[in-house]
Amino acid sequence: MLTKVQVVTVGHAIVDVLAPSPDDLVERFGLEKGTMTLVDDSRAHDIYAALGPATEVSGGSAANTAACLASLGTRVAFVGKVAADGLGTVFTHDIRASGVSFEVEPSPDGPGTGRALIMVTPDAEKTMCTNLGVGAYLSAGDIDAAVVAGADVVYLEGYLCGKPESASAVAAAVSAARDSETLVAFSASDPAWVDMFTAELRALLDDVDILFANEEEAHRLAGTTDLDRAVEILHGTCPVVAVTLGARGSIVLDRRLGETTMISVPAHPVTQVVDTTGAGDSFAAGFLHGLVNGMGPDRAARLGALAASEVVSHLGARPVASLSERARSAGLL
Amino acid sequence: MLTKVQVVTVGHAIVDVLAPSPDDLVERFGLEKGTMTLVDDSRAHDIYAALGPATEVSGGSAANTAACLASLGTRVAFVGKVAADGLGTVFTHDIRASGVSFEVEPSPDGPGTGRALIMVTPDAEKTMCTNLGVGAYLSAGDIDAAVVAGADVVYLEGYLCGKPESASAVAAAVSAARDSETLVAFSASDPAWVDMFTAELRALLDDVDILFANEEEAHRLAGTTDLDRAVEILHGTCPVVAVTLGARGSIVLDRRLGETTMISVPAHPVTQVVDTTGAGDSFAAGFLHGLVNGMGPDRAARLGALAASEVVSHLGARPVASLSERARSAGLL
Fold first, then answer.
1. What is the CATH number of the domain that holds B245?
2. From its phi and psi, is residue A239 left (phi > 0), alpha (psi between -120 and 50) or beta?
3. Could you report the predicted ipTM of this complex, rounded to two decimals?
C-alpha cells in the first residue's frame, strides 16, 4: 500500500449466487423467507443443486461498504479471507476493480471461498443461505495493525461476532484502533444475528465509536421495542449512533463535540426500489465518507441516503454508477 | 440418461464475465467494438485485471440454444468440456438447472473452464474476448454416438470448426448422425469466424441438413453480398436454410418435402431490446423445437422469433421466463 487508507473495513468475503426461485423451494428447505441462514458445505451443496440457473456477483456486507466508499473517493482497504479457488479469484478481482485495496493472501487449502445462495422469489423477496467457507477463519493474524493505526476509521461487520476465529480478528482490530485513536465503526448486520449473539455484540459496543443499525437491530441490541428508548440506550455507550429506517430515512445521534446533536434525514428519492440488499452497507459508506472528510452528521447522513438510493435501484449490493458523481450532482460533494 | 433426448447440441462451455466498461478500455487492448476475439490465458489474465467489477453468468452459443430448447420443453443434451474448477462448477450447475442433460466429465487437469470477458460499453455494445480454455479440447471421444443416434437432431456451433480437436468432435457427431438418420443442424456462429475458417465451414455444409446464419454470415459463407443469391447458394447444399435478419425477422427455405417452401417471418415484438447476445442461439432453439415436434417452417420460425424476443429483452443470453409458457400465451404451442 503506497498511501495510508482512510478506512479499513473488515468482514466476510462472499460471492452472491442469485437465482430466481419459486416459493416452494424456500419451504422445501425449511427456510424463512427474507432471512439469512448459515449453512455448512453439505447443506450448501444440496441447496445449490436444487437452485435454478444463477448469476454470480461479489457481495459481503463490509466488502460492499468498501466498494461504496471507494466509489465516493475514500481511500479504503478491505480485510477478509478468500480461498485460492474460482470464486476467490472473482471476489478478489471485483473488490480491487472497485478501487479497494485488498491484500490478504488467498488461503491455499481448507474450505472454499464463502458464498451466499440467494433465492429471489416472485415477490422480489430474498432468502439467503450463507456458507462462510474460509471466510469464517479470518483471525487476528490477518489484521495489519499498522494499516488500522494509519486509518481514520476501522469498520467491522456484526457477522464477525460469534465464531472464535473472527472474534479474534475483531479484538485485534479494536486493539490496534485503540492504540492509535482510530475510530471503531460497527454495523449490527442482521436482526437474527443480533438475537443469536446478543451478549457478544453488546460486549463489543463499549469499544464502538460509531454504531450502524436498522430499527430491528437497534431494538434487539438495546432490549426494547421503543425506538426512542433504544437509541438513547445505545447512545449511552456509543458516541455516534446511526439508525436506518428504510423508506423513512435515518436518525443520527452524535455527541463527539460535547452536547448531543440529534438529526433526522429523509431517504433519498428513488424511482423504483429493485433490491434492498446492501442498503445498510451503502448508507454506512456514505456516512463514513462524510465523517472522514470532516462533514457534520447531517450532511454525512444525506450522503449515506444518497449512496443507499443508488444501490437499492438495481439488482446487486454494490454501486453501478459512480457515487461521487451522484453526490456532486446532488450538491453533497 | 433415462430417456432418449430429441436434440443434442455441441459447442464450447463458456461462462460469460460481463463488465460495464468505458470506450477507451476497448481501444487500449486494440479490440474492435462489437466483435469477438479469441485470447490466450495470458491475454485473458491481462484483460480481466483491467476490467471493472463483473457479473458471471453461464453462456456459450450451443449451450444457450440447449437452455432455450429445454425451456420450450424439448428433451435436450449439451456436449462441451469444462475443467474441475469454480467456473466449471458454475457452468455445470446452470446448464443442468436449466433442464439440460450434461454428462461430460470435467477435465481434471490442463486449462481452466472457458470464459468470455465481455466489455459492455456505454452505448450498450459488447466487445468479447473469449478464452476457450479446456473447451477447445473437446474431441471425438467426447461424442456419445448412441446419444446422437437416438436423437432427432444434432446441433453444432460454427466455433467448433477451426481447432483440430473440436473439428474431430464435429466429424464424430456428423458420422454418428449419418449412421442413424439424425439430422445435422449447424450455426455459422460469427461473421469473423466464417472469415477465418471459410474453407472448413464450407466443407462442412455438405453434411448439414439445417443451416442457421445471420445475414453477414450467409454473405460470407456463400461468397456474395446479394442476400437472395446467398440464400440460393446455401440452399443448393443445405435442405433447410434459416437466415436471421435482426429486427427484420427471418427467412427460411425448406425443401424437405420436395418443392422448396420459402417463408418470411417478422421479428416477435419486443418492448425494449436490452442485449442481443444469444438472439441467434435462441432463434435456432425455437425453430428446432418446432421441427422436432413436426411443425412446418413457418410456425417453427415464429417459435424461433418468440424465443429470441425473450432473450434480447434482458441482459444475458439464456431465457429468464419460461419459453413454453410464452409460446402457449402467443398461441404457438
1. 3.40.1190.20
2. alpha
3. 0.87
